[in-house]
């Protein structure tokens, strides 16, 4: 097909995707929130409760990160630096992983991460939210919470996987001839943490 014809077809696909996203937002607006307890986490500054992570906001975004063992979770987290300063003007934002706070702190410093992190290692948070697999492995994703007085509810969540909407690099690769190709290279390969759980 000619370049102009392909561009037109792709533009039509993007309009369809935009329409689906609008339908998803409309569906999300009808969901009955799931009440959750005020989980306790560990952080580099000491213990902290879920309710404290909201800061001045009524909404909170919590990333379910699998920790330093997952190179793809690191890839997603590298991307949060760019928009963290913007997202916190609208909602609280924190990355939760099973790593201990001292491990998180050292790794975050090595990556230049500026967003807050908490450890759910000693809580049932990840399991209760559905981010532990049937085999007992951690799973990546995001949960969104709302605080109304002393009541905290989860209003939405979704899992992460290579090619999803939460890591922009996939969409740039989609535009290259051959797509993702051999990236990240035969020596690295696809990490086992992102295989089916």
TrEMBL record:
This is DUF899 domain-containing protein. The lineage of its organism: Bacteria, Pseudomonadati, Pseudomonadota, Gammaproteobacteria, Lysobacterales.
């Amino acid at each position: 097909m000619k370049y102009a014809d392909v561009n037109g077809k792709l533009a039509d696909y993007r309009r369809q995707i935009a329409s689906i996203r609008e339908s998803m937002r409309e569906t999300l607006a009808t969901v009955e929130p799931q009440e959750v307890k005020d989980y306790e986490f560990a952080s580099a500054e000491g213990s902290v409760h879920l309710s404290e992570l909201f800061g001045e906001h009524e909404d909170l975004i919590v990333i379910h990160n699998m920790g330093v063992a997952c190179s793809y979770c690191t890839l997603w987290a590298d991307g949060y630096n760019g928009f963290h300063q913007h997202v916190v003007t609208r909602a609280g934002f924190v990355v939760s992983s099973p790593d201990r706070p001292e491990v998180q702190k050292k790794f975050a410093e090595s990556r230049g991460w500026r967003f807050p992190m908490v450890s759910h290692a000693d809580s049932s948070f990840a399991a209760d939210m559905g981010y532990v697999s049937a085999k007992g492995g951690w799973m990546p994703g995001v949960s969104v919470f709302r605080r109304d007085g002393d009541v905290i509810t989860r209003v939405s969540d979704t899992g992460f996987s290579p090619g999803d909407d939460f890591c922009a690099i996939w969409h740039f690769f989609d535009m290259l001839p051959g797509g993702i190709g051999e990236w990240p290279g035969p020596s690295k390969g696809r990490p086992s943490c992102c295989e089916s759980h």
